[in-house]
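User: Fold this, then the next.

Assistant: Folding the first:
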Amino acid sequence: MLTTRLAPMIPADIDFVIEHLWERGEAEAEKFGMTDKNEIGRYLHSLPREFAWTIWHGFSPLAVLIASRTDDGVYHTSFIATNEFPKAGLAATRILNRLFKQVMAAHPDKKFELWSASDHPSADKWFEVTGWKYSRPEGLFRVYESCSKNFVATSA
């Protein structure tokens, strides 16, 4: 049985996930104006990485999560996953739920946003399970707030 675990992210993890990108992530990136995998990779590599993790499944990266501070002091999150994500989705979801709770408890002075363009019917439920609740629409995107009062997540 393969184990699923969290580790600090390194740049090679982005490259692996991009090479094996899940079609849902690719479709969502297009809504952000990124039309090919190289463009997605360049964007992710350009982000400051004060908070950056990789979810591993077995011996390979499964997904990367980066939270980058914007000019207005808000941390925007970027999450991409490989096409193997559905196979380990439950374990990864549990890891993300614990991670978000820990980060929010450790950094009550920081505000996080996650912009989501996902049109998948179960997206709202998944974000709720990982610690966010739907707040409002924002153009093509959906905004989610953290279940912790100190954080706001905007998810695409």
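Now the next one, as you asked:
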Amino acid sequence: MKPVDIATERRLVLGLLVQEDGIYGQLADLTQQEHEAIVAGTPEQLEVLVFKKEQLVERVLLLEAERLASVSRLAPVFEADAAEVTLSDLQEVWTGEELTQVTKLQASLQANITRMADLNKRNASLLRSSLVMLNRWMDLLIGGRRQETYSRAGGQRKRTAPVAVNRTA
């Protein structure tokens, strides 16, 4: 087995992490733009943003595969399987400026991923609410049956009034 060049592998992993962090930042920005497209009611723009996000996710998957390959080469240094080696473990092989950069990257990655998750939750909630409203309107327009309207006073769904639809008018 060829000996592991730790310096080369740690530089490779560091470079891959820098790229991943940049992409996660871009994903979070696109997720914010998705929110704006949802609120503005521009499905064409939303579709473009989703496509861009899918391309970035594919790039992240490629970077992840490269990083895992590099980590698997470093795993014997830690006497562990590649799947068990964490970013915290890898910090043991970095020194000086690289260690400072990795520590900052770790915080940035966490912030970008958390931001993206929060934005995705907000967007999902908006889309769910839009779908409920759309379904309600479709029922009113097509169904011709009594519908109840609801408000979210204090976060609770409350029946406010029945709505009758007159299909003959």
